[in-house]
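#dry-run=false #mode=assembly
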Amino acid sequence: METIQLTESRETTAGFTTVSEPRITSPLGFTAAGMHAGIKRKRKDLGLIRCEVPAAAAAVYTMNAFQAAPLTVTREGMAVESRMQALLVNSGNANACTGDEGLADAYRMRKAAAHALDVPEHLIGVASTGVIGERLPIGKIIGAVPGLASSLAVVGHEDFCRSILTTDTGIKAAEVRLHVEGREVRISGVAKGSGMVHPNMATMLAFMTTDAVIEPAPLHGLLREVTDESYNMITVDGDSSTNDMVTAMASGLAGHRPLTENHPDWAAFREAFAFVSRELAKMIARDGEGATRLVEVRVTGATTLEGARQAAKAVVGSSLVKTAVYGADPNWGRILCAVGYSGAQLDPAGVTVELGGVTVVEGGRPAIFDEGAARRALEQPTVEIGVHLHEGVEQACAWGCDLTYDYVRINASYRT
Amino acid sequence: METIQLTESRETTAGFTTVSEPRITSPLGFTAAGMHAGIKRKRKDLGLIRCEVPAAAAAVYTMNAFQAAPLTVTREGMAVESRMQALLVNSGNANACTGDEGLADAYRMRKAAAHALDVPEHLIGVASTGVIGERLPIGKIIGAVPGLASSLAVVGHEDFCRSILTTDTGIKAAEVRLHVEGREVRISGVAKGSGMVHPNMATMLAFMTTDAVIEPAPLHGLLREVTDESYNMITVDGDSSTNDMVTAMASGLAGHRPLTENHPDWAAFREAFAFVSRELAKMIARDGEGATRLVEVRVTGATTLEGARQAAKAVVGSSLVKTAVYGADPNWGRILCAVGYSGAQLDPAGVTVELGGVTVVEGGRPAIFDEGAARRALEQPTVEIGVHLHEGVEQACAWGCDLTYDYVRINASYRT
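#status=ok
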């Protein structure tokens, strides 16, 4: 299984360098492991990340009113001291809508990891993804954890990545390195998710590690901010799931002075952290169920940031735009239409739309454009849709994918 | 082409009787016509409804920020005295995003009809549906209007119905009769729309006629109210279009005392009017692009009407629920998930979900149910999904359809 490749990236890498072979275990202090515990028929389904010290940690959770048991348990543990030393993740079963028994199962998962790693339970995060409403095969999980723990290693990165996947077609991982006070700092992350992906998070799990020195409070503030401009700006099918969670663990082993907003290297660290988050988010969108293309919608000239985000999400989430992209049909009318109902403040006569570099709408009206060139822009692995509202200075970017026959096929028969 | 059949209806018909062969021209004073003017390649594309007196009229328009030229023109005419004597409608071209020239074209359409029918321009409503961003072949339309006007007849119902269709697979029409002060009153309506259908209206046109005696003000109030519980509660793909409009014309030829909320027969009239609106809305949902089934989601026990509507719309609009229905997969997890992110106030442990008559979720957890029976419920022409929140007394119903391969096929190549 290949790592999801983003064929291009508009991202600036000023202030940090990207790593071609990312590992969740690159930051100092982290090891990982993954195995087949028997939750799924064949593939790996149980993964573990461990930090050799209790890491400063932060987490954000789905907005869905139905929150899966592992989220409740992780949130409760984080409430103690906002630190995490290990994360136990299973795929194949979401442990959602499973009531008190499901909650008890999540606690058992946590207890098993705490016991195997000899750390307090509140330092263990748990996460699950897969089918909703069925009890976890908790016996299999508890039985497998000791072996999983004993296989923790820096080379465990790929096994871990595989163990958290469901309908994903590839591994999602990104890593950057930067210097803080002249010392090398690593920021790495892995993610899973393809269906049910939407703003406010979805069946999407992302785990980030760093060896930067940063207290839980600033780390949490950073994670919240960055999540709104990365994970919360992707959509595959508009559905937000019950299990989404993004966590960040900072081992602090890089040994510089603690990072806060006042630290001279904060801006560089923030940009590097945001870059990893955006890369993972885009990989998830690119791997949307049935997707053949990544769609990037950049809205500029909005009066408010919220309006820019609404417009970008409306376009990238429109089934009609998504099918038009699939058909490589430069149907700019559907793009205008989505912008029109997004709620963003606009004057129709001021809107410009670009496909790739091709201006297809100017002043809210069709421009004379080269149909062939526009069509080619829609056939790129990454389709760039630009919308300029000419109202203000705010902008936002959203990512999604095309809507294909395979999306229908995959979701018309997920359980069977 | 058949009229869209709703295989079943939970609706009560107390106080009125349904008409098996509805005609937009049944109410006293109305005639209609439809023809091929050459906007489309072959099919009828220009339709006209005329009332022999200036009818009391009301209209509601799309919420989309991009409003097509004909809406601007119709709104302007209605502003004069809230009356309408004729409606000229074309399909094949939406006259949207066409700027000043498009606006001039809409005025020319109106002028042509006013001239042919010898009525003031402000009494002519115009509507368009079809491709966005292309100029109308206004010459063809102006040339065709006189012949269209001369063919106006009570039997013109079907020609008119055909002339307003785009990707519709069938005619949408409904009619009821009731008694006001002992006199027979007719309420009839026709509609078009299949793609881009969503709350807040879509490429959806509905024209209602009645011979009831009612002033514009109460008629407008009634139309607004009823639209929120019918046309605004259907969704096919979540996209709201630039051209939606619903109009109501009341000839007043039934000759009873004017209907107001204080009239003893108001309740009966309101229910009859709402029934026709719901039937048309359901026909549009049933005819959603690529749809094989009508999906009806009834949410009960909500704390607020808005919450009930949000939850019903979230479930009926979920791509994952829609594909599950297509696959006849009783995937109640996706239904709970949609309710969970709808924003409706709920306690997960209190939610019940039914498919057809089969309870699949009780207290927010999977019930033991007959998988075969649930599957059969999803294979019905009308799939009934019931969600009870057990929080309050408010309820709402939303209608949609399944998401199929054909939806992708139709929309990946609409223009080609």
